[in-house]
Amino acid sequence: MSKVAVIMGSTSDLPVMQEAIDILKELGVDVDVDIVSAHRTPEKLFSFSKSAHTNGYSVIIAGAGGAAHLPGMVASLSPLPVIGVPVKSSNSIDGWDSVLSILQMPGGVPVATVALNGAKNAGILAAQIIGSSDSEIMDNIISYKEGLKEKVIKGAEEIKKTF
Q1: 3-8: strand order across its sheet
Q2: Candidate from 91-105, 107-121, 134-148 with smallest mean pLDDT
Q3: Is 32 annotated as a binding residue?
Q4: What was the pLDDT predicted at 111?
Q5: Main-chain phi, psi angles of 124, to 5 degrees
Q6: Keyword set for this entry (predicted)?
Q7: Beta-bridge mates of residue 5
Q8: 21, 61, 67, 146: which has the fewest C-beta neighbours closer than 10 Å?
Q9: Cα(110)–Cα(163) distance, rounded to whole angstroms?
Q10: How confident is the model at residue 101 (pLDDT cuts 50, 70, 90)?
């Protein structure tokens, strides 16, 4: 079974990244979580990134705030798809520094980037990548999206009752 690694630069990123962890579990995807700081633990970053594909991971989700080098550095060292989650942190310039650091990667080092604090979408995207070759995960994604549709339809019906 495919696994997703959810990594972040520090424990302060966990409240945002928890949404990726939760949706991956809901969709039936195995997930491992770790703290890997690009600036404070570069040796761990290199080791993790270079070996992730041999450790059973199919996708890496990397969340980071501030300068947000973690997703790009992981992508430069790993052959796996990397999804970056810009995190609005206390040392951030309203989150824009994180967004641009993750989004503006040079050619040859792609990082799929979701919205600021958009970890839930990162989890869904990771599951969709895995679902393209895993029919059980694909079925879970189809059911999840059907549930989203049903929620909107039910909400529309409730509003019509009000007006």
Answers
A1: 30-35, 3-8, 57-65, 82-87, 112-113
A2: 91-105
A3: no
A4: 98
A5: -65, -45
A6: Isomerase, Lyase, Purine biosynthesis
A7: 32, 60
A8: 146
A9: 48
A10: very high
Query: What is the Cα–Cα distance from 156 to 11, expressed in whole angstroms?
Result: 39
Q: Sign of the CA dihedral 61, 66, 72, 78?
A: negative
CA distances from 113 to 40, 108, 162 (A): 23, 15, 39
Report the alpha-carbon distance of residue 93 to residue 102 in Å, rounded: 14
- Residue 34 annotated as binding? no
Nearby residues of 28 by Cβ (< 8 Å), 6 or more positions away: 136, 137, 140
How do strand 3-8 and strand 30-35 relate by DSSP bridges? parallel
Sign of CA dihedral 31, 29, 50, 120: negative
User: In this structure, how many other beta carbons lie within 10 angstroms of the beta carbon of residue 41?
Assistant: 14
Using the Cα atoms of residue 84, residue 21, residue 24 and residue 40 in order, give the sign of their dihedral: positive
pLDDT band at 142 (very low <50, low <70, confident <90, very high): very high
SS (H, E, C) 47-75: HHHHHHHHHCEEEEEEEEECCCCHHHHHH
Contact (Cβ atoms closer than 8 angstroms) between residue 70 and residue 37: yes
Sequence-ordered alpha helix ranges (H) in the chain: 14-26, 42-51, 70-77, 96-103, 119-131, 135-162
